[in-house]
Amino acid sequence: MPVGFRYDLWCVPMNTVTDCIWYGKDKEWQEFYADKFQELFRSQGISEFKDQFNLDGTEPEFVLETEGYRKQSCGMPNLSHIAKVTSRSLL
After folding, report:
1. pTM of this prediction?
2. pLDDT over threshold 60, residue 69
3. Considering only CA atoms, which of 77, 51, 48, 45 is closest in space to residue 64?
4. What DSSP line would sit under the chain, residue for residue?
5. What percent of the chain has pLDDT over 90?
6. Statement: residue 91 has pLDDT above 80
7. Which of 6, 30, 65, 72 has its CA 20 to 30 A from that of 48?
8. Are 34 and 20 in contact (CB under 8 A)?
């Protein structure tokens, strides 16, 4: 499987949010990251969001599927809500 952003990488925003809340050592970057993460999923819509990307942000040719359909990670929308705690945006 090609290298890319896949289902299990929802831990990146989770770790960023946790670090911001617990330690806040790089709060400016963590808030910036949370804003970008929120913007991405807000722009796609909760039922249409994509959760697999190449490292350059494009959609991969190889998309993991489960039982014949394209699976969406339940971790991604959940983390989007949690990232709101860190986000500077009020939207």
Report:
1. 0.67
2. no
3. 51
4. ----B-GGGGHHHHHHHHHHHHT-TTHHHHHHHHHHHHHHHHHH-TTT----B-TTSSPPSS--EETTEE---SHHHHHHHHHTTT-S---
5. 0
6. no
7. 30
8. yes
> What are the distances in angstroms from CA 15 to CA 21, 68, 70?
10, 31, 26
Q: Give bridge partners of residue 53 from the DSSP assignment.
A: 5
Q: Is residue 79 over pLDDT 80? A: no
Tell me how far CA of residue 64 lies from CA of 3, 22, 29, 49, in angstroms. 12, 34, 31, 15
* 38's tokens: 């929120």
Count other Cβ atoms within 10 Å, centred on residue 52: 18
Q: What is the pLDDT of residue 89?
A: 56
